[in-house]
Amino acid sequence: MSGFPWDAFALNLAWAAAAALAVMLATFAVAVRAGVHRIVDVAWGIGFTAVAAVTFAASAGHGDPLRRVLVTALTSVWGLRLAAHIARRGRGHGEDPRYEAMLAKAPGNRNAYALRMVYLLQGALVWLVSLPVQAAQYVPGPPSFLTWAGTALWAAGLGFEAVGDAQLARFRADPANRGRIMDRGLWAWTRHPNYFGDFCVWWGLYLLACGSPAAAAVSLVSPVVMTLLLTRGSGKRLLERHMAGRPGYAAYQARTSGFLPRPPRRP
């Protein structure tokens, strides 16, 4: 693991934590003023973008310049697209039912509880999941095959996520589809094309950090945690619990993959 600038990277960890915390605290202030905590979902992508930008500045003089630009650009494109999509989707709506249910059980002040259990927790997750974005910018040596393989996997994931979101938005915009289950396009191949896209994005970014054994080792936890969040945590599991009572959803589950894309089963 020689050649990796551990001292500089350790300092960067502190800068990245400060960036994630600043984004979440600013979002909390806006949410309290607006009276709607669903705004924190917009901050998720912005937090990763902030960490990537701060790391790019802090890593000057370390790592390969091309890899630093590449990982910052890829993270920012993903994060800002996601933030814009969530902001557009939530415009004009009230509180998210997930946060409403959580805050209804809050002991004491709801805003203080939201700060602890939502904003600070998401800030910590941004810091943890972004470890490949941070470590990759300190990897010495020029880009390798893994760099370009990771970029290709990131591109596939972003495409899957963006196309899936666009297909769902068009489906919901048609009044004829009210009350129906979206089972077309990518949604016929997996019940969660957006989550599968995220999965590919973060394993792709991890490959960009694999130009150094040290960076690969220190950041492996991040795509693993993201995978668990998407499949077992607040992603797929909670959404399917919410959808379970919808007419036609059980049949959709029976014929459509739960995560990895594959052709739909015959009825």
TrEMBL record:
PROSITE patterns, A to Z: S5A_REDUCTASE (PS50244)
Stretches that traverse the bilayer: 12-32, 39-60, 66-84, 118-139, 203-231
Alphabetical list of InterPro entries matching this protein: UstE-like
Keywords: Membrane, Transmembrane, Transmembrane helix
A Pfam family annotated for this UniProt entry: DUF1295
Top-level division of the source organism's lineage: Bacteria
GO CC annotation terms, alphabetical: membrane
Entry protein name: Uncharacterized protein
Record organism: Streptomyces bungoensis
Lineage: Bacteria, Bacillati, Actinomycetota, Actinomycetes, Kitasatosporales
